[in-house]
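Researcher: I'd like a candidate sequence for this fold, 299 residues long. If you have to choose between options at a position, lean toward the conservative one.
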């Protein structure tokens, strides 16, 4: 099955070749800083990002927390320490006895998305926070993922081992990887079954299909498929090579529309795939998506 949860390969950072490159990187950092502030101004006292709707969804709140973590802040420390504490409180308060993390009045059609992102976030902050209940609730969240894996080796919208798709599966395997990195128990068999499922989801063109019964490849789900393999500890091999070759066909260009509902979803995973790939792939993808996003940021 390959190496499970092996250490990631080191990515090659982009080389600064001119004053223009430096200016663009500085501009990108400024755009990120504005994004941090935007999120902070939306957070409510209870840790959500709005008083109603998807701003209270577990996935949305967890992803905001992941963004603030990238600033170098940790719960109660750094410029966004208080925001991170509130997010952590919010997610832990909405962790059920079963380990399922969900906000009843803000569920999407697929609450396992929210559970996966929330578990990923809590695994990242585990060890940074003195909360006594963090480890117990995190382990229960991990255990729920383990027991809801279906016979094919993947996960689906609801916390039940029924059908599966590549989009929900990537959320769960990333959460399991983060939890394993933090020292929590994740069964090897769960990961091996997931690897088998993801590999069987790959088409001959290198792309990935949404479900085993859906034969079409597409960029967003293929980016997720490659990152699922990376998260499961597979860093090389024909599946990785063919997947990256397929993603190369979708290098971001400024003329590309961002109106597709899956544009940001695809780029979220594609950036991670290309960072892991390193070398020339990262050197091409990073400035392309960086400058595209910077130019499209609203005032």
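Model: Candidate sequence:
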């Amino acid at each position: 099955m390959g190496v499970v949860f092996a250490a990631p390969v080191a990515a090659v950072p982009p080389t600064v070749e001119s004053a223009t490159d430096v200016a663009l990187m500085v501009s990108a950092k400024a755009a990120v800083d504005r994004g941090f502030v935007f999120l902070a101004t939306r957070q409510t006292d209870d840790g959500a990002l709005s008083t109603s709707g998807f701003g209270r969804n577990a996935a949305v709140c967890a992803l905001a927390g992941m963004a603030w973590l990238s600033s170098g802040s940790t719960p109660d420390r750094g410029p966004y320490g208080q925001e991170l504490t509130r997010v952590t409180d919010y997610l832990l308060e909405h962790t059920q006895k079963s380990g399922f993390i969900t906000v009843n009045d803000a569920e999407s059609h697929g609450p396992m998305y929210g559970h996966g992102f929330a578990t990923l976030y809590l695994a990242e902050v585990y060890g940074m926070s003195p909360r006594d209940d963090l480890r117990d609730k995190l382990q229960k969240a991990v255990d729920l993922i383990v027991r809801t894996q279906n016979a094919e080796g993947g996960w689906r919208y609801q916390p039940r081992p029924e059908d599966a798709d590549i989009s929900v599966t990537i959320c769960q395997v990333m959460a399991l990887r983060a939890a394993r990195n933090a020292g929590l128990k994740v069964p090897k068999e769960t990961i091996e079954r997931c690897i088998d499922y993801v590999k069987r989801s790959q088409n001959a063109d290198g792309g990935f299909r949404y479900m085993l019964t859906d034969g079409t490849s597409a960029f967003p789900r293929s980016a997720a498929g490659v990152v699922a393999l990376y998260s499961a500890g597979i860093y090389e091999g024909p599946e990785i090579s063919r997947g990256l070759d397929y993603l190369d066909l979708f290098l971001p260009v400024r003329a590309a529309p961002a109106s597709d509902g899956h544009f940001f979803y695809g780029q979220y995973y594609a950036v991670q795939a290309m960072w892991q790939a390193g070398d020339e792939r990262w050197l091409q993808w990073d400035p392309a998506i960086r400058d595209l996003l910077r130019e499209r940021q609203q005032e």
